[in-house]
Amino acid sequence: MAAVREERARQSTVGGTAGPERPGAPAVVELADVAFAYGPEPVLEGVSLTVRRGEFLGLVGPNGSGKTTLLRILLGLEEPTRGRARLFGQDVRSFRQWWRVGYVPQRPAALAGGFPATVEEVVATGLVAAGGRPGHGPAPGTRTGRPAHRPGPSAGGRPAPRSPREALALVGLEHLARRPIGRLSGGQQQRVFLARALVSRPELLVLDEPLEGVDAATQDRFYRLVRELREREGLTVIMVSHDIGVVSAEVTTLACLNRRLFFHGAPEQLEPGAMAELYGFPVTTVHHRH
Ligand SMILES: Nc1ncnc2c1ncn2[C@@H]1O[C@H](COP(=O)(O)OP(=O)(O)OP(=O)(O)O)[C@@H](O)[C@H]1O
């Protein structure tokens, strides 16, 4: 028992940690000794992190601690100055199966205001974007009226995508499919972009503060959906959030970042006081689901 505790503690310390919940599951994301800087100041240093199939990783840290940058590196949108990133076992620079990855960037709703496209059309652009690099696909609404959905199984091991309506049903917005996206509330728009990320039936969902401005009932619904997709489809989820209390109750694994990764492990393994050290004031974590 003591040996097991020691092993779990070893896995949860700084640096090169494997996903502590599922040691046998295949690695979906592997970051090895990643460093990055936009200018002279380092933004990330020595970050090593493995996320395994079915894991739900919560990425937390203060403003400017490098969370979005880390997501961009693992999606191949930024090139690390040192170290490497792998997706589904392939170097991210040569990775092409972008339909396997759904990405909701920070504040996507801010882009939606002026678009004349309907909700359904915005969701359909997720299929077009899945053919290219996430975030490099066409902006929502730029290919309106021509959904790329092709029903039935497709070649090359790629599963049949969801229809935009199916994806909207997952987030409870089917009834708004024909409404212009600009005429939805901010929280509803966030859900539309989640549906857009889910439409290609991804195996990895990367979410940058997806619940910002979303009410408690909708948050609950979101976590239920994530649980369902993880159980049913083995979905892997990486989510940036500032709501540390809720996140630590929901995720299987927590990664705390402030330029360096200073904790990676099951939320209940986090030492009391560690968050206060990271944020500079007391922070409460809650764990009850695992
Ligand atoms: N395009 C950019 N050019 C220059 N500096 C940048 C750029 N993007 C981010 N930065 C800087 O890099 C650092 C890390 O930013 P990043 O967005 O990764 O942090 P974050 O942890 O996601 O922050 P937040 O919680 O506020 O969203 C910050 O100091 C930020 O000012």
Describe the structure.
The protein is of the alpha/beta class and 290 residues long. The chain has a domain of 144 residues: P-loop containing nucleotide triphosphate hydrolases (Rossmann fold, 3-Layer(aba) Sandwich). It is 29% helix and 21% strand. Strands 6-7-8-3-9-10 form a six-stranded mixed sheet, with helices on both faces. A four-stranded antiparallel sheet has the order 2-1-4-5, with helices on one face. A hairpin with a 4-residue loop joins strand 1 and strand 2. Helix 4 packs across helix 5. It is globular and about 45 Å long. It starts with a helix and ends in an 11-residue tail after the last helix. The structure holds adenosine-5'-triphosphate. Adenosine-5'-triphosphate binds next to helix 2.
Task: Summarize the structure in short.
29% of the residues lie in helices and 21% in strands. With 290 residues, the protein is of the alpha/beta class.
Strand segment tally:
10
What structural class should be given to the helix and strand makeup? alpha/beta
What ligands can be seen in this structure?
A: adenosine-5'-triphosphate
Series of secondary-structure elements, N-terminal to C-terminal: HEEEHEEEHHHHEHEHEEH
Which regions are unreliable across 5 or more consecutive residues at pLDDT < 50?
Answer: 1-20, 136-155
Radius of gyration: 19 Å
Region (Disordered): 1-24, 130-163
Biased composition (Basic and acidic residues): 1-10
InterPro entries: AAA+_ATPase (IPR003593), ABC_transporter-like_ATP-bd (IPR003439), ABC_transporter-like_CS (IPR017871), Metal_Ion_Import_ABC (IPR050153), P-loop_NTPase (IPR027417)
Family: Belongs to the ABC transporter superfamily.
